[in-house]
Amino acid sequence: MTGEPRVTIRDVAARAGVSRAAVSLAFNDKPGVSAATRARILGVARDMGWEPNRSAQARKRAGTGTVGLAICRPARQLGLEPFYMEFISGIESVLNERSSALLLRLVRDVDEEVELQRHWWRSGQIAGSILVDLRQQDARVVELPRIGLPAVAVGHPDLAGPFPAVWTDDASAVAEAVRYLAALGHTSVARVGGHAELGHSALRTEAFARTLRALDLSPDLQVATDFSGEQGASATRALLSGAVRPTAIIYDNDVMAVAGLSVAGEMGLRVPSDLSLLAWDDSQLCGLTQPRLSAMSHDVHAFGADVARRLFALLAGEGAVSRPARTPVLTPRGSTGPPPRRGV
């Protein structure tokens, strides 16, 4: 991937009119340069966007280098999210094969991640990055190619800009879920989704509405959340207390589906006799509930491994080739069945 040439210590020394040794002394706060010279060197380096490569030797020992991953999630929520635990596990399985390491940071927003990725790349802390939770008009796919950062985007190619993408066909999976529930006889199907600004949430939202129209089902009941169990429960209560109560609900992750199952019991509804619930991702949580949760099964560990392999292929010079991962498949269990008979 092309981009801005990486600034080196030689470039900084030339512009500051000093030796490379003086630049090193200034950044390490060692004696040998005056305070004025040190300030000038630091100012030049800052203007040029250069930072000392403190991990070059570590990267050399690590073989192919460290991989960066920044996630915009609160720490407590991330620890409860099976998707990212499995996804990171899949990445680590490939890194272990290559004696490489993962540099993981939690960020508040995309702007903070852009600055973090710049710092990681310019200071030589990473060999490449994995970009997750792509958004429409994502600043990362605009800003990061300019510095030449090698990265793989986890999301649809339409969202990934010049970066190679690895993605699942969420639209087809959503359509399969709705068609399955419709085949059981449900005419009022709702969806509890994730952040509205996320690219994959937007794709699922559109596919859900499109499939409802194709099957002549209504109304379009969708609620956006932050993927947490708390908001999943709140969304479920709102749907079940509304003027039109759905007989089936699809959730964008299994944490929210488990929360929804709890709310159904709280409101005196039997699953699946009164209400069918369908989860996403199909972590071990889905097998621990009673009844066990039906789900759109997704091998998230293998997905993470696919993403890591794609990044190493990019670093090996294979180019920006995008590849689809396996589409989630329906796994029916005890939480889905025909809708309740009206008037009985």
Please tell me about this protein's structure:
The chain folds into three domains: 9-45, no CATH class; 56-168 and 301-327, Response regulator (Rossmann fold), CATH 3.40.50.2300; 170-297, Rossmann fold. The chain has 13 helices and twelve strands. Helices cover 42% and strands 15% of the residues. It is elongated. The chain is of the alpha/beta class and 344 residues long. It starts with 8 loop residues before the first helix and ends in a 13-residue tail after the last strand. The strands form two sheets. The chain has a six-stranded parallel beta sheet, with helices on both faces. The chain has a six-stranded mixed beta sheet with strand order 7-6-8-9-10-12, with helices on both faces. Helix 1 packs across helix 2. The protein has helices spanning 9-16, 20-27, 35-48, 56-61, 75-79, 82-97, 110-122, 140-143, 170-183, 199-214, 229-240, 254-266, 300-315, and strands at residues 66-71, 101-106, 128-131, 151-154, 165-167, 189-193, 221-224, 248-251, 276-281, 294-297, 323-324, 329-331. Strand 6 (189-193), helix 10 and strand 7 (221-224) form a beta-alpha-beta unit. The longest helix has 16 residues, at 82-97. The model is unreliable at 55-64 (pLDDT under 50).
Q: Tell me about the largest β-sheet.
A: 6 strands, parallel
Q: Give the domain tally.
A: 3
Summed over residues and divided by their number, the pLDDT gives a mean of: 90
Enumerate the spans where pLDDT stays under 50 for 5 or more consecutive residues.
55-64
Fraction of residues in β-strands = 5-15%
Under CATH, the homologous superfamily of the largest domain reads Response regulator
At CATH level 2, the architecture of the largest domain is 3-Layer(aba) Sandwich
Task: For the largest sheet, list the strands in their spatial order.
Answer: 2-1-3-4-5-11
CATH class membership of the largest domain = Alpha Beta
- Compressed to H and E, one letter per element, the order equals HHHHEHHEHEHEEHEHEHEHEEHEE
CATH overall fold name of the largest domain? Rossmann fold
Radius of gyration: 24 Å
Can you give the helix content as a percent range? 40-55%
Distance between the termini: 64 Å
Q: Name the structural class.
A: alpha/beta
Query: Count of DSSP helices?
Result: 13
Shape: elongated
